[in-house]
Amino acid sequence: MLKSRRMKLPPVHETLADLVRINSVNSAYEGGPGEREIATWVRQFFEQRGIEVWEQEVFPNRPNVIARLPGRDSSRRVILEAHMDTVSVRGMSIPPFEPRVENGRLHGRGSCDTKAGLAAMMHAVASVHVEGIQPPCEVWLAAVVDEEFSYRGVLKLCEGLGGQAALVAEPTGLRAAIASKGVLRWRIVVRGKAAHSGKPHLGVNAINHMARIVLALEEDHQRLAARAHPLLGPATVNVGVIHGGVQVNFVPDMCTIEIDRRLLPGENVASVLTHYRRMLETLRAQHPTFDATMDPPMLTDAALETAADSAPARLASALLAGMGLDGTLCGVPFGSDASKLSRQGISTLVFGPGSIDQAHVAVEYVDLAEVERAFEFYRSFILRFT
Length: 386
Ligand SMILES: [Zn+2]
Fold this sequence. Notes:
Layout: E1 2-3, H1 11-21, H2 36-48, E2 52-59, E3 62-69, E4 73-83, E5 100-102, E6 105-107, H3 111-130, E7 137-144, H4 152-158, E8 165-168, E9 177-180, E10 182-191, E11 195-196, H5 206-225, E12 228-229, E13 233-234, E14 236-244, E15 250-251, E16 254-263, H6 269-286, E17 292-294, E18 299-301, E19 304-305, H7 311-322, E20 330-332, H8 338-343, E21 348-350, E22 365-367, H9 368-384
Parallel strand pairs: 4-7, 4-8, 8-21, 9-20
Antiparallel strand pairs: 1-5, 2-3, 3-7, 5-6, 6-22, 9-19, 10-16, 10-17, 10-18, 11-15, 12-13, 14-16
Bound molecules: zinc ion (ZN).
Residues 83, 113-114, 147, 170 line the site of zinc ion (ZN).
């Protein structure tokens, strides 16, 4: 078992190892220092190569870092975007910040999600600059904060941002993804009336009424299953949490559930919520003591859908096929910064090395050969996109 710092690695792998060595756990998570240190490292990487770079403050001491290469056409822009933060190291069974290379894989927190993609993007931009090539379009590399918690980094980046194409680094196993589901999470509260369990007719059992809602949601899930998106499958609804009751000999006066609804492209949060509000109204009409309310959403995140015949999607597909990789456009089962860039009217794809199965887990790693291929892909994309 050799520590990577003792070995001579190719430059992109060396950069990945350096990035993994920096703890950039999102500060929303236990013990997370945030992105200050890694942001400085990324900024200096570009400064040392004479590439224009600046910081964009998102939270105090948590900036996005943006590097820019001028293009032959200054009115057109390609954005390479990767997040710098990681999830926590809780539950990891390997040293999180000691990048270790074994069997062609580099291990450590963030190695797969998404420092591998970030390192590959950084070297793609740097190599074009170092060779003195001016790409057809202006190129921005945006290394952003806070993807793993509340997407504030990309939202700041998007303020007033325009562009013709964006590539977002996430582990897609070197496939180009044009679609992902959105998410909507909210809580339903049922209020009943407390009574002694020996005289339940004096109370209103909140759990019983909630059971009607849970069953109605299960039926709704089956209804959703009937309509599948070609790349993403059907929308889903899942009750993940239920709380109710205080003691076995009380009629419970309150019950709450938390619901996770995955949205397909084209579904709109307001109309989805209206659908569930109507469902509650129907139950109320059937049961006079039924009293349920919906809390405002705890989380909403839009779905992503980039046209398969858009110029960036067609180019990505052709480049991958030319590299001997799978050029079929796909969907991914996770959300990312991409949907936010897409909402800006920028045709956005998700593409990166590594598998999502190796992200956020006890043993996180990335295959170094994939990092090389991702570097080639990003580089070809910025050289070819016009
Ligand atoms: Zn990620």
